[in-house]
Amino acid sequence: MRLAGLNFDRVPSLDVPFRFYLTAPFFAVLAGILLACFGTDIWASRWSPAAFAITHLLALGVMAMIMFGSLFQLLPVLCGTPIRINAKLLTLFLISFSSGLLCLIAGFFQLISYIASLVLLGTSLILFATLLLTTLIRFAGGQFTRLPILFAVISLMITLLMGITFLANFSWGFFGALPKYWTNIHASFGIFGWVTLLIVTISFQVIPMFHVTPEFPQKVRSYLPFLLFASILLMSVEQILWNSHFSFVITWLLLASYSLFALKQLALRKRKLPDNTVRFWQFALANLILSTALMLVVNMFELPIDIEKNVGTLAAILLALGCVLSVIQGMLLKIIPFLITLHLQQHAMKYPMGMGLMPDHYSLIGRKQGTHLWYLHIVTYILVISSIAYAPILYLAGSVFTFSWGYLWWLLLSATKSYYEIRIAIENC
Amino acid sequence: MNIITLDVSELEPPLPMQNIMKAVVTLTDSELIWATHRRKPNPLFDMLDQQNICWQHQQVNEQEHHIFIWLKTNTHAQDLVNSKIAG
User: Fold this and answer.
1) Contact call for residues A229 and A155 (beta carbons, < 8 A)
2) Distance from C-alpha of B77 to C-alpha of B7, rounded to nearest angstrom
3) How many other C-beta atoms can be found within 10 angstroms of the C-beta atom of residue A375?
4) Do B12 and A8 touch (CB under 8 A)?
5) What 3-state DSSP class applies to B73?
6) A349 touches chain B (CB under 8 A)
7) Integer Cα distance of B58 and B44 in angstroms
8) pTM of the prediction?
9) Cβ–Cβ gap B21/A8 under 8 Å
10) pLDDT at res. A9
């Protein structure tokens, strides 16, 4: 199936994904401010309140927020079914999710108890993940996309249930101190099972579509998501039973093979025009190969403790900032103007004289602005990596990160404002 | 009959739909649009249906699709499209 089933009656109105896309930069800016304020504390320990807060702001506030918005847009396209939620419930979900996340951050700094975040964040996310699972199991179609997205949502559910258990344990101490591998499994399902698997699946559709490349081979599309999910399950079982990480070799091989395939597809694109989204993709894929290779080194070899800690930190930066946040920034540059143009096109059909007002999509977010964002991202990346060697650089890295996401936020808001202005101008034609 | 040929198969979204729709709004009774696309553009068909504009789709292979578009008042277009599709 190639994008069959797209139907305007089912595609959500523009404000549905945009609520998520416009909220995510707020949490990124907040994470940047924390990075700029707490600086050297961050690398002192992965268990420090600031490290926890920044990790969860990025994982939930930015990555999950963007993924949720994209699923609202993509499920009707890829699986022929909308996510069935009415406008009031959607607003309630977004409010409880966002406020619950703020409560969680306040909880990490021991400003309030975890109970508020357990109620707001835990309930809203579990209910939303259940809705996603129901939609995928009962209503979804799509030969190559339904099962991989289902695996990603199952991973999200596992991540959430483990996270809620940790919070309840922090509050009431049911299980005492849990072994470190439980947090590793929580993180593995979150970053590899939920975020990376979803990126892989969506890339099979969006890379050929937006960048005019050949399709990914059918075998890659069919088997890779399934094997990736199986490898994450295997890693978890191995950690629980033997507290070892040998099966990470399989995960690394799968992700490195995928990255090489995707880089090859991008190299084969028909129109080799300068494109910032392509740069973001290439950078992200290179970082995916490198970060997982470093994780493999940490998992397979006995390293001195300080070297192991630094290599582990570097791998996490390459994966989160170098890979996932690069894909998110690159795709937002592409998908926001695309969605705005698509909806304006539909609107202009009712007012054919307004067709002349249809914007060039590069007038909504210009190439030059995309290039500025790219350089800001690269500077942030270099500064954060440099801070491993000299921690005080983190104060500067946090400031540039804040500015970078603030700039993206402004670009998204400006494009949204243009949408409403052009929409009114079309009606007046 | 004037046939307007459009090849949008190497354009990135949303340009294929924009170019086709630009041609559609100026379409006359004696014209037929013959567009070549690399995907089946379902959103385009929805828009054309909403405007009561006739269209026919032919999938040549996974990456080549032909779309024929004409106005309802163009009484000769359907025969011409059938002959084009028949080869």
Assistant:
1) yes
2) 20
3) 11
4) no
5) coil
6) yes
7) 14
8) 0.90
9) no
10) 53
Cβ–Cβ under 8 Å, residues A208 and A214: yes
Terminal alpha carbon distance of chain B: 18
- Residue A6: what pLDDT? 41
The strand order across the sheet containing B31-37 reads: B2-7, B31-37, B64-70, B54-61
Tens digit of each residue's pLDDT (9 = 90 or more) over B14-72: 889 888 988 998 899 999 999 999 888 877 888 888 888 999 999 998 788 999 999 99
Q: What share of chain B is helix, strand, coil (3-state, %, to 5)?
A: 35, 30, 35
Q: How far is B53 from chain A, CA to nearest CA, in Å? A: 11
Q: How confident is the model at residue A274 (pLDDT cuts 50, 70, 90)?
A: confident
Residue A66 pLDDT exceeds 50: yes
Q: In whole angstroms, what is the distance from residue A358 CA to residue A342 CA?
A: 10
Touching check for A357 and chain B: CB below 8 Å? Answer: no
A335 is written with which tokens?
């998908």
Residue type present at position A147? L
Using a CB–CB cutoff of 8 Å, tell me whether A138 touches chain B. Answer: no
Residue A297 has pLDDT above 80, yes or no: yes
Say which of B18, B38, B40 has its CB closest to residue A341: B18
Q: How many CA atoms lie within 13 A of A14 on its CB side?
A: 20
For residue A381, give the amino acid letter. Y
Nearest to B10 among A6, A212, A342 (CB): A212
Let me know how long chain A is.
Answer: 429
Please give the CATH superfamily to which domain B2-86 belongs.
TusA-like domain (3.30.110.40)
What are the boundaries of each domain within chain A? Answer: 273-429
Contact A134, A162 (CB under 8 A): no
Query: In the predicted model, is pLDDT for residue A2 greater than 50?
Result: no
Contact between residue A332 and residue A3 where contact means Cβ atoms under 8 Å apart? no
Give which of A189, A190, A218 is closest to A204, Cα–Cα.
A218
Could you tell me where the DSSP H helices lie in A77-145?
87-108, 115-117, 123-134
